[in-house]
Here is the input.
Amino acid sequence: MDPDIEFVVADGPAPGRWTGLAGLVKGFHEVLGAYDNYHTVAEEFHELDDERVLEFHSYTGLGKTSGMEIGQMAARGADLFHIRDGKVSRLVIYFDRKHALADLGLAPASDADRPSERS
Here is the structure.
């Protein structure tokens, strides 16, 4: 990873933006802190261009507050990796892959009120 990485959580329980490796750790801690036994399983990788890779995944975990298994919901997310000089310079995670597709102009937005993460 680039030491100046930009980490973005575009949707989900704790949207936000952090920079640097310490910011990445803090952002992941805020996101993952809402769950017990959080796991992702990569399903597909799509090279969008020379600088971006879109990864689709499913995820599971137990919400600490709700006690609900997130696998009971539509637990299909996406990660958008921006690559510069062989390192990840920006990582955008989506809890809902439909939001990723809409932000990339690959599908219509399903929620017009949700702020868009432009890549």
Summary: The longest strand covers residues 35-49. The chain has a mean pLDDT of 85. The helical segments are 20-32, 97-103. DSSP finds two helices and six strands in the chain.
